[in-house]
Amino acid sequence: MKDSLRKSGALLCALSLCFVFTVTAGEAQKVPISFNDYHGYTGAVKYLKDIAAAYPNLTELQEIGKSNLGRPIYVLTITNTKTGTTVDRHVEIRHPRNAEIKEAFHLKSYDGKPGQWIDGGLHGNEYTGVEVCLYIIDKLLSGYGSNLEITNLLDNKVIYVCPVVNPDGVFNSVEREISQRGNWDLGAAKDSPRDLNGDGHITQFRYKDPKGASVIDDKDPRLMVRLGPNEQTAKQRYSVVTEGRSAADTMRPRDQETGPTTSIDVNRNFPEGWWTEEGMPGGTGSYPTSAPEAHALVEFAVNHRNILMVQNFHTSGGFTYRPPGVGPDTTMAAKDVAVYDLVLGKKYLEIIGEKVPEAWQNPDRMAEFKAKLRGASRNKYAFERGYEMPRGWIMGYSEERDQRYGYGMVIDWWYQQYGAFAVTTELWNPGADIPGFPKIDSQAPGGRNEQERSLLKYNDEKYGGKLFVNWKPYKHASLGEGEVGGWIPKYRSNALPGDPLKYVCENHWQFELFRAGLLPEIAITDAKAKVLYSTDNAYEAKAVVQGDQVTIKKGGGKGKYKIVEVTATIENKGKLATQVARGSQLNGNRDDVVWLIGDRGKTEFLQGSPWQRLGVLDGQMKIPGQETGPALGGQRGGPGGPGSPVTVTPQMPPGIPGMPMGQRGMGMRGGQQQPQQTGPKREVKWLVAVQGDAPLKIVATSQKGGTVVRELAVR
Amino acid sequence: MKTTKIIRKSMKTTALLAMACLVLFSLVLLPAHTSGQSKVQKSPGGYHGELDFPISWKHYYTYDEWTKIIHDLQKKYASLADIQTIGKSRQGRDQFLLTITAKSTGKPETKPAMWVDGAIHGNEVNGITCSLYCAWYLLTRYDYDPYIYELVNRTTFYILPGLNVDANDSYVRYPNTANNPREPFRPMDDDGDGLFDEDPTEDIDGDGELSTMYVEDPAGDFKLSPDKRRFVQVEDPREEALRFRRIGSEGFDNDGDGRINEDDLGGPDPNRNFPYDWNLRNGYPYPLSESETRNVMEFWLGQPNIFGSFHFHNTGRLIMFSAPPAARGATLTPEQQRQVQEQNARRLEEMRKTNQYAQLFDRIVDRNYQGDMDALTEIVTMGARILKDYRPTMSGLVGQAQASSYYMLGAYAYLIELWGSPTTEADENKDGRVSDQEMMKWIDIELGGEGWINPHKVKHPDLGEVWLGGTAKKHISRTPPARYMEEEALRNTQFILYSASQFPKVEIDRVEVRPATDNLLWVEVSVKNGSLYPTSSDRTVQMRRDVKDKLTIDTSGNVKQLEVPEGQTILDPTNPTDRMQTPKGKTAEFRLAGKSSQKFAYLVKMDGGSGWIEFEVSSKFGGTAKKRVNLQVGN
Fold first, then answer.
1. Are B174 and A286 inside 8 Å of each other by CB?
2. CATH 3.40.630.10 region(s) of chain A?
3. Is A286 on the interface with B (CB under 8 A)?
4. Is any Cβ of chain B less than 8 angstroms from the Cβ of A658?
5. Regarding the domain delimited by A1-91+105-184+263-326+404-428+505-518, which CATH topology (the fold level of the hierarchy) does it fall under?
6. pLDDT of B550-566, one tens digit each?
7. Contacts with B216 (C-beta within 8 Å, 6 or more apart), sequence order
8. In which element (H, E) is residue A43 found?
9. What is the CATH number of the domain that holds B147?
10. What number is the ipTM of this complex?
11. Which of B192, B254, B256 sits opposite A590 (nearest CB)?
12. Distance in Å, alpha carbon of B360 to nearest chain A alpha carbon
């Protein structure tokens, strides 16, 4: 019964009211959360468990695997678990095969809804994303029942949040303050960072070194300024190493954690573009998904085919990567590029307060922009596309150098192999995320130092200087006299806790909420069962197929056999299509489908197979710069009334040759697509012979657009 | 211990003169290997221990049966075998692995290893027989057969009889078609209707076999043969006969969609699921998505001693090997291709005059991979000889296990397609195919009727009344009737063992000492690999994962190695091809190709009348060998 809850809008309303009633005003946030410091792995897990306990009807907490060091990886499913259905709840399966083989595979009802995936902490030292995930969880759950948009969202869609993809990396980076990108224990490694002076923090050690690459800043003596490779100076040179290490590190965590069997950069361990063109390993790990974290994520994803939107939070920079990272834009469908840039990118730039390219605002004039760029840009991809990528919304692939960004990155996998609009947002840009903070281009000469000085000042003003440990003398066992001090590493490269972090969270919650609003949504907008004919004898009321015409023979009187014409309109009421452009061709994905289900022993299909492919239903949104498909397919032949011969033109091919339809039992027909229909709507029709008053049920099901059910009384 | 007398004369410094003195030196050898404890038994009457552990090879074993067999084998031959599980299948079965080597001669991981897996495809279960047979052959014969004794002493065999254990077991135990179940049981929506594995095949008449369904249909293409044992094509459309339409394999329409058996059990093809050259279309959903394949890869990665691998499949009687990549830029025009093929055909014809099993393959490989191509060609040539009616061919990539074995581990990998449709047995007119009449004749005469189902009517819940008949698919077409398996298992075992016998083996071939001037001596060492395989594959070299062979010199205290410029030296001007390397320091690093040797020259200074020099060659896969030369100055 609960599977068909969504069939009635009235019932939905009743349910919502029920929740409004139980979630009383003022108690919206059942599990309080603050963003005054990072939660790390431990804090995030505690929060997830508390949330799951507090909202049993809106959440499900699942362990999807264990990290390299055995820490559980959690996904919180957020949706109204009482709503939603999947097609396998409605099709009665006969299974006379041996009991040994347990092939029954039921999705959870709510996994049949359109979905969005949000994750953070895939790189251990980029844990601002963990906080944004927790913030989004809080907003969704505390908003349910009081905020209409959120209530609708959780009733009809499902959000999967995996705040910490890489527990080992986040744990070390936050709980132990050992900045760690990969999935091992850097703290146990040879020459690992250590708290030498016992001040409770692993900061830095600086010592006088004629060959050192750093000097003390003139304006703020706490700041160490790196010199250029050939830069001359009259000042004292210093070397700076991470506290506890005996050799200068390169500032690139990737290089610190070397060794393929020791640490894996999880975001180079996914199956898309992992190999080099020469057939050698390009990504990290022994093979794609060799990292348990990548394996867990991919396995979850392929068993949840309903996800169309994906966010993979990283730090830092305050911009977003869209795919591709392993190849140029020509490896993507133009339609998807338009969705990415002109829909998602445009909104993202507005949210972070950066200028939206002129071409995105005027997609109708794209030809003009292309022509203009052709003379002005040396980027061949840009003038094919019509615009250069703006700072805040880029792809990993370097168009200037025609060079890939890396091997085996997660968003390339999501887009190319799974079929989802995946992005990696690099959170945290102090100039944008701290109101009043000087707008500094950290890439410009001296910009980085200028930003550092401003951050130190901000630390003094807002945090009483707590985030920075002043330099104190220390004698290093192998490097000699020097000083220990510097930023507490936890507060580096991540949004500063408190207001800046909350600002980042709020912006990106808004972006994700916007993206959730674009998800497709399948609906049966019209459904009719019309009795064309009734008789006592099923054979007498049989349809005869001649060519592409079905003629129903006349018979006499009313009876318990009915010939019923069922028509329905299936529509995608969501904004985006039910798959990315090439999505339905990816193995594991499928077309949208509609079933007509009757009582197995009492329903005979005269025309139209029990299930029919609908193709991919477009969304309601016109994708800027993209042609929309033609309108609905051709007219149906209008059936006459009872007592007169009824002639209909089948909309589907007549099945496998040599398989006459309408015979007792069934031939081998079914599953044909109606090729001429495009756009967001499909009209479907069946002709069935029904015994007695056996009910009929229409189930429209789309992997990423959801499943809906309509029961039809035969009268 | 014998010593060599060095007769000191007043000598010139030229090497040429030293050559003349060569005859004055002889070598002192240390025994290369102490023999193991086990004693080779006499085998009167050709007995080789087979009845020490009797087992029938005319039987398809279920998972429970064959796992019991290998556990019993391990108990009986505990000094030669270990059992472990490399992990569990989707349905929770252990993937048991036998490790076979003489424990007395060293731990398994210290020896070069041959990997054998029995059945990656669920339905190809005679591979289980072949791999079990191989294990049994090694264990029972160890004490009786010097060839096996030597192999088991110096080689490790990792044998995984069933890889795809769930589907293997289902294939053996239940009625199935020839093609199913082939894959691990990941739920899949084959027909795209939103349901998973909802419409598999079923044995509708309960006779234990899956046959073919027909329905009566006046417009059908089939009728019964005069003897009523077969469905045959209607030739004259005007003929009056009871006609049938073919539906397909036995089964119901479980989901009521009007189609039958369209969403059978089974997920991704496990032999498209390995990481090398994997793609989504063939290998959905992702590399090593199945625990059955991932467990194998994880085991491989933990065993860097794997040097070769065999992977059993069927059908087709093929020896497929993972060939190195074609040389880049070596794309030929169709005309050039034709020329190369013609040339090869002529060469092959010539070669076959002396060796009727000679092989030649069209692929032009990069120079860096030529050694691998040569070794593989030699091995499969011998394979063709051992397996007789098998055809060697290059195997594909696309996520296949043997491709990952070669391209990721650098192991020499062979896929064996066992059996074939019974062409050898049944094809009377030698047209290369078996007609229905030929098949029936074979079944009637040689199989006593087993495997044929006479047409008969049964009730069907979806189709009303259906007729069933034809071959019983399982052990007639895909896998051979059980009585045919043993000979094939024996020959394939012999091929595996031949390949293992050609694993590299390093030796110190010769040590020669030539007096130079005063108390200086030239010491020349020749190290040799007498096997077909190089000491490390070209692929491991290209991956920069090869371990170099090492030659180490040790001397008595009064013998000092002198520094000679590192490089190549020609010691004998009359024979400039006789090049020697003059290594710097105590250890020289190199790599020995198959059937090759390398020479090294050391200049040493000896104080006093006697001393010694010892050489040790060590190779990751080729083992180690030592030789000591005692030197004594005489008059």
1. no
2. 1-91+105-184+263-326+404-428+505-518
3. yes
4. yes
5. Aminopeptidase (3.40.630)
6. 999 999 999 999 988 77
7. B242, B243, B244, B245, B465, B467
8. helix A40-54
9. 3.40.630.10
10. 0.91
11. B192
12. 25
